[in-house]
Write a structure and sequence with these properties.
Elements: H1 2-13, E1 18-21, H2 26-39, E2 43-49, H3 55-68, E3 71-76, H4 83-86, H5 92-111, E4 116-117, H6 130-137, H7 143-147, H8 151-160, H9 186-203, E5 208-213, E6 216-221, H10 232-244, E7 249-252
Parallel strand pairs: 1-2, 1-4, 2-3, 6-7
Antiparallel strand pairs: 5-6
Helix pairs in contact: 1-2, 2-3, 2-8, 5-6, 9-10
């Protein structure tokens, strides 16, 4: 696996200890795997539980770290204490990642680590992502960007090493389901997370976004899974369950999920 070998070599050329920002997705999982291969016990992974991360994502990060055998730390802070983030303007992701970067730097200093990396890949650069810039400003590096490694190659690496997340759909923080300009609150985040769990349990789909438009819940699933949604009885159950959460109207987006669909500057 040429790209994986290049990734391991990248670490060997750039330090002897590393901290990997592990999100629970396939990208950061492969970076963590390469870091562990390069540095052994001198590689560590860190996941931030910042209140907009779904419990499912946190559980996946723990599982992946266990599969890799890398030392894993979960730090907690409350993103909703950041008023710039809460107001949910076009720079929400920048404010989120600025705070994350600051916490990563702080934890790295405690551990005596100077190299901090994340799982950003070259495909991510095609979107408008102010969060990437925020991490760069805090010194976080992206080895897969520096090496020109794309998402398809990352999935191949993950599959070849038997990582459980090799085909895991991409995800984003729960706040990305809230329209720009609408304030982020605990209540909205909890309702969105509960709604997405309901959709997955009823229809057996893997990629789900429940967009919170106040009274309206707009459900998006992957285009390859849309056919699973068109069962009258299941839709009636979905309608009832989501209305129990406080929504008055429930719709299924027949165009399916695609990145940045809620607001074109979002990275979801």
């Amino acid at each position: 696996m040429v790209d994986f070998n290049r990734l391991v070599e990248w670490f060997a050329k750039n330090g002897d200890r590393v901290m990997v920002a592990l999100s629970g997705g396939v990208d950061s999982a492969v970076v963590a795997l390469a870091a562990k291969k390069a540095f052994g016990n001198n590689a560590m992974a860190i996941t931030a539980d910042y209140k907009t991360l779904a419990d499912e994502e946190l559980a996946t990060a723990r599982q992946v770290a266990k599969e890799i055998g890398i030392d894993h730390t979960v730090i907690e802070y409350d993103e909703l204490e950041n008023l710039e983030f809460v107001k949910n303007d076009g720079m929400r992701c920048y404010h989120c990642r600025t705070e994350l970067g600051q916490h990563l730097v702080e934890e790295a200093k405690k551990a005596g680590v100077t190299l901090i990396v994340d799982g950003t890949n070259v495909d991510d650069l095609a979107d408008y992502r102010p969060g990437i810039r925020a991490l760069r400003e805090n010194g976080v590096r992206s080895p897969m960007v520096e090496l020109g490694i794309a998402k398809s190659e990352i999935r191949e690496i993950a599959k070849s090493f038997g990582l459980s997340v090799y085909d895991k759909p991409s995800n984003a923080c729960l706040a990305s389901r809230i329209p720009t300009g609408s304030e982020v609150t605990y209540e909205k985040l909890q309702r969105i997370e509960s709604a997405e769990i309901i959709v997955k349990s009823i229809f057996g789909v893997r990629q789900v976004r429940v967009r919170d438009h106040g009274e309206l819940a707009r459900v998006e699933v992957g285009r390859d899974e849309l056919q699973k949604m068109f069962d009258v009885d299941s839709l009636a159950l979905l309608d009832a369950k989501l209305k129990e959460l406080g929504f008055k109207f429930v719709s299924v987006d027949t165009a399916g999920y695609r990145t940045g669909k809620l607001v074109m500057i979002d990275n979801d």
